[in-house]
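Regression test attached.
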Amino acid sequence: MKTQVGKAEWIKEAAKLIQSGELVAFPTETVYGLGANALSESAVQKIFLAKGRPQDNPLIVHIADIHMLHSVAQDIPMEAMELFRIFSPGPLTLILKKSPDLAKSVSPLLDTVGVRIPKHELAIELIQRAGVPIAAPSANISSRVSATSASHVWEDFDGKIPLILDGGDCEVGIESTIVDMTKDIPVILRPGRIKACDLLTVLPKVQMKSGEIKLAEAPGMKYSHYAPLVRCVMAKSLESALAEYDRISAQEKPVIVGNNQFTAQCKNRQILSLGSSLDEAEKNYFQTLRKAEKSYSTIILQRFEGEESAAIMNRITKSCGGKTV
Ligand code: TXA
Ligand code: MG
């Protein structure tokens, strides 16, 4: 199959493809999504096939505005409506009771669905023109690093999907915050740019998911995630990053990845910087890993401290498969 990469002028074609049950990769403010008509079982099945995604890992459904919410979810709590009003469009996914109209494989075995309104012109226009909710996981081969530009999507899906809509680099760079609103006290299943303190401006209480992951909670989290093609470890401190680098540099090609402050202290060693602020680090994280795996054989990642670093630490820990030095 020939894979076309096109900008806004391809939007009509993209909407037609979605309507006819095909896949289209599209930009959002977080990461690129691999989209299909969420009401069509055969279209949704193509996502699992193209990504190599385990069937029990449910998909997030993307809608254009709050009016579409009732076509994908039901019994929506007031607090969820309030969160949508304040944070959408934006990097927030809410887990709600699902509508029977959705294709079964969107969330097989569950009676819930993750819903979000992405903040990207092309994403919204695609959903509006297609006239259906769009199921979309991140547009990367399963277990690999997420895609934050059209060229990343092309690396993973050239020849496998008909169209990649190119909307430039993603602003946020890590996936949406996921909050399960079906629990008495809402639970953050995946940390993201919208932090617990932001949610607490609307919710009286919110809890972080920790410990063992059960099927009904966050099925995707039990699989390996965000893994570069080369060895990747997290350094407990600057000293341990430097020590690991020096230990292996005679046989291997290591690189140290961290923020400006961290990499500035690495002297003559190979470095890739994530920028100076936390927002920049989140934005640059996946693209830096994709760059690093092309030129180096070991990636040594900085460990970020503090509660506000939960989102990037969640990605770092998974990229390293828990390996620390
Ligand atoms: O920012 C994002 O959320 C991006 C863009 C494309 O919107 N999407 C994304 O999708 O990150 P994906 O499939 O890569 O990650 C979705 C995560 C998975 O870990 C999945 O298990 C979880 O959300 N999830 C989806 N539906 C769920 C549900 N009903 N209950 C619990 N977890 C759910
Ligand atoms: Mg993903």
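Expected vs. actual: identical. The longest helix spans residues 278-295.
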